[in-house]
Write a structure and sequence with these properties.
CATH class of the largest domain: Mainly Beta
CATH superfamily of the largest domain: RNA polymerase II/Efflux pump adaptor protein, barrel-sandwich hybrid domain
Shape: elongated
Strand content: 25-35%
CATH architecture of the largest domain: Beta Barrel
Order of helices and strands: HEEEHHEEEEEEEE
Strand order of the largest sheet: 4-11-9-6
Distance between the termini: 43 Å
Helix content: 10-25%
Structural class: alpha+beta
Number of helices: 3
Length: 152
């Protein structure tokens, strides 16, 4: 396997920029995980079902993904982040958001954009319905499997 040192450097810079302690990007069956203290390249990657809290100190504040409404995480209409990055609710600054609470969407509609490694990734609705909750704000860092919104 060829190790992409440029990608590792970009991920490390993104860690510092966002204040995250770990970031992972997958492409097919390969993934690169960069954490404070090192980098790992993994073949045969299988993503985890949910984020794991590695912090055992209960007095330390948890990231938003660990403290947001548990009902939303278990909701069948939860739209989760497929990657680590920065979420944007509109295509360009000053333009209307892709969706608002109460909007009706259909499968394939763009819900948000997640920027990862300077690439804008549109996140599309997998099914139609009504947006009942938006759990992220514009410009917020998100992690893999964070709930972005709920569509019923």
């Amino acid at each position: 396997m060829k190790i992409d040192s440029k990608a590792i450097k970009e991920l490390a810079a993104l860690l510092n920029e966002t204040g995250l302690s770990e970031i992972e990007v997958a492409d097919g069956d390969q993934a690169i995980r960069v954490a404070k203290g090192g980098a790992t390249v993994v073949q045969g990657y299988t993503p985890a079902a949910s984020p794991v809290n590695m912090n055992s100190d209960p007095t330390t504040p948890q990231p938003a993904s660990m403290t947001s409404d548990t009902v939303a995480h278990n909701h069948p209409g939860a739209v989760t982040s497929p990657m680590v990055g920065t979420v944007y609710l509109q295509g360009e600054p000053g333009t209307p958001p892709f969706v608002k609470k109460g909007d009706t969407v259909k499968a394939g509609d763009t819900l948000v954009i997640i920027e990862a490694m300077k690439v804008m990734n549109p996140i599309k609705a997998e099914k139609g319905g009504t947006v009942t909750q938006i759990l992220v704000s514009d410009g917020q860092p998100v992690e893999y499997a964070d709930v972005l919104m709920v569509i019923e």
